[in-house]
Write a structure and sequence with these properties.
The complex is a heterodimer. Chain A is α/β, with parallel strands linked by helices. Chain A is built from 15 helices and eleven strands. Chain A has helices at about 10-15, 25-35, 50-60, 105-110, 155-160, 175-185, 215-225, 270-285, 300-315, 335-345, 350-360, 365-390, 415-420, 425-430, 460-475, and strands at about 45, 70-75, 115-120, 165-170, 185-190, 210-215, 255-260, 290-295, 395-400, 435-440, 445-455. Classes of the chains: A alpha/beta, B mainly alpha.
Chain lengths: ~475, ~100
Amino acid sequence: MSDITKQSLSELVENIKNKKLSSSEATKAFVERSEKSKELNAYITEDYTNALNKAKKFDEKPNLDLKLPGIPMAVKDLFCTKDIRTTAGSKILNNFVPTYESTVTQNIWNEGAILMGKLNCDEFAMGSSNETSFFGNVQNPIDKNLVPGGSSGGSSSAVAAQLTPITIGTDTGGSIRQPASFTGTVGLKPTYGSCSRYGIVAFASSLDQAGPMAQNVKDCALLQEVISSYDEKDSTSIDFKRNEYSKELTKDIKGKKIGIPREYRVDGMPKEIEDLWKKGIDYVKDCGAEIIDISLPHTKYALPTYYIVAPAEASSNLARYDGVKYGFRAEGENLIDMYEKTRSEGFGTEVQRRIMIGTYVLSSGYYDAYYLKAQKVRKLIKNDFDEAYKKVDAILTPSTPSSAFKIGEKANDPVSMYLNDIFTVPVNLAGLPGISIPAGHDSKGYPLGLQIIGKAFDEQSILNIAYAMEEKINFKNNITDWWIK
Amino acid sequence: MSIDLKTIKHISKLSRISVDEKKAEKLAGDLNSIFNFIEKLNELKTENVEPLTSVAETTLKLRADEVKSKNLREQVIKNSPKENEDYFVVPKVIE
């Protein structure tokens, strides 16, 4: 079978189920393409030999009732994988080999998928361009020296370049949706509590959520169905009725009410993004949905709130990296010296910056002024959404304020880097589901995404709206294989 | 407001991250520009707003207090940076 790697997940599953394709053939094809694609630097750890062996084993006794039968895939290196090194993109976890498996990846293997390797990401998922990774920049397959977005940059690059048919990322402030938007792929951040956080390297626990990334909406729906589960090992996991998202997927969105928030028309937004948004509104109208203007008045406070809450939680979560129990250790003259040198040498610049911000806003005398204030504003932001959802079923916005930028372009200006997440961060603060779908190209030919935000636990509606829009948009990614050796 | 070098040194001590002079100056610059951006929140009056600590509007589930994993010593020790069969090893603390 030719062009195996060009097939979508749904096609691969169908071909394996019809015995037109074996898991070994599929795995070999994706492994070979991954090996020819080292220039993208999408992988941190490769596990190709094991993958091929597992595929062979699957073929000997194939269970074709599974949802991901013998499907090879690589995952973001923020998910703990038993006996496979898990680095979170950091020097401090360079030699860390988990003795247990994350719930989300376990759910995937239980449905028959096979691990090919671990994908690059910003260090501890802190970044919007994959430039903070200890393991180097990732190339966006769209163009040379273009960032793939972040923090799930290895994941977005690998899916867009067809090194893996699907993948999973994590999203704390936009880390699935922004890289999906930058690479012309589909990325879903589920409702907080939908996917277990057990075994995911923690960044900001009240915001972190795992989610699927894929080439199309249907594949994304299928993977979401696999990874979402109630898990008693995560105390914030929520026990709600989960749909079979891919089976219930429909393009019929007639009568759905879609909100357009006026506050998302931000100053300095390129006309291309504004035009894309208008086009998106026309598409959903064409599908029979109703457009309603709404207001989310506290939108402009979302980023400042996020840059208090997320670093505060990070400073607390990252206190565990002390050079004692696991990970990198720098030798010191005494215990305190050892801690300080380990953390100074083990963490990169952005991670240190965020730990320092977080420590400051939680420190004595500043807690009320910053952290408590931010939690109160977070409440106002959530109230905005609650109010809006009395009138609408979902909200349509751009995914990002620009297309992908060049490597190095924003690396020295943290605030301008943070502004990338202006449309995605409010969704995390309110704990809602959001999906980014590719919706067009800018004048440089780089992809642009639109975001659909849903009510809590209503992934099905935003997947349906995305599915209906996808057909109208008929997006084609311009991938030229320039990096293939 | 402005974060000076003395404050940076204080935060660095609290964070257990050592910083030299050069790094401290760079951090002061970065943190000041970030806090300028954060200060926007002061425009809002929030006296009567309840802080939001969790978006999940459920109460935590109770469970029986049972031991579910046993004999994990080897696994727990496995990734420690200093090899020792039974303990984590740290620099000498007591003379």
